[in-house]
Amino acid sequence: GFMLSTIRTKIRRLISRDEDVDDFEEPQLFCENFRTHKAKEVETLEQRLHRMNQTPNLLHTACKHCDVEAVSYLLNNGADPNSTNAAGDTALHVVLGSVGRPTDQKIVQELLFHHANAELCNAAGDSPLLNACRYSKSSAISLLLAHHCDPNAANLINGDTPLHVISMNGDLGKCLTMLLQSGANAFVCNAAGKLPTEVIHATTCGISASTLQEALNHKYRLAIRNFLLALGRMDRPEYKLDQMMIQWMFG
After folding, report:
1. Is residue 93 within 8 Å of 122, Cβ to Cβ?
2. In a domain, 243, yes or no
3. pLDDT band at 210 (very low <50, low <70, confident <90, very high)
4. pLDDT tens readout for residues 34-55
5. pLDDT confidence bin for 148, thresholds 50/70/90
6. Does 19 reside within a domain?
7. Is position 222 within any domain?
8. pTM value?
9. Which residues does 52 contact at the CB level (< 8 Å), separation at least 6?
10. 50/31 Cα distance (integer angstroms)
11. Total number of domains constituting the chain
12. Domain range holding 198?
């Protein structure tokens, strides 16, 4: 449309003058809100960027709003896929740092194709894989693991591995299975001395067997059972699960 044509023209002018696309301070032009020409919402985006103390970055904004076409255009015109904001987030962190959207996978593919470093950690100590695990982005997890990301790379501050993060926040079915199949180590403790099987206790023991059965896909039951049994945790009193849950997991 007209606005996309306008932004492309401005970017071409920047490129022709050898200016840095990453420093272009009009991120709102790639925002989904701008497509509806709502100036008020554009101002809100600018205010939000400044409130988060982030230098406006076109690529990050395009990733945040899951604009695949904009991401591809910027990368093809020299945008740095490894540039960071004030929080140390790269474009991969940005696209994986919120609830999943249908275009996440395509953007991750574009970034990896353009040599985004999937091992970089942000100021919170998280890698893109840890972000993906935190929000149960199974497609992104699969892409990152296929890109040879270390399934045991821990948070630089709290020592949580992808298994810890999945156990606390994520999908105990598909995501857990992918990590285990990729060599994730269930014997690694975090900085608090907790194993993944110990942090899973807090998220599962308050859930009834029937609720858990509905939440998890039947075909992943064996992987989950093996994970819980990996260190013999179910025989400790503080890790006892109710009989209904045990019967379901072993049935």
Report:
1. yes
2. yes
3. very low
4. 444 434 444 454 455 455 544 5
5. very high
6. no
7. yes
8. 0.66
9. 86, 87
10. 15
11. 1
12. 156-251
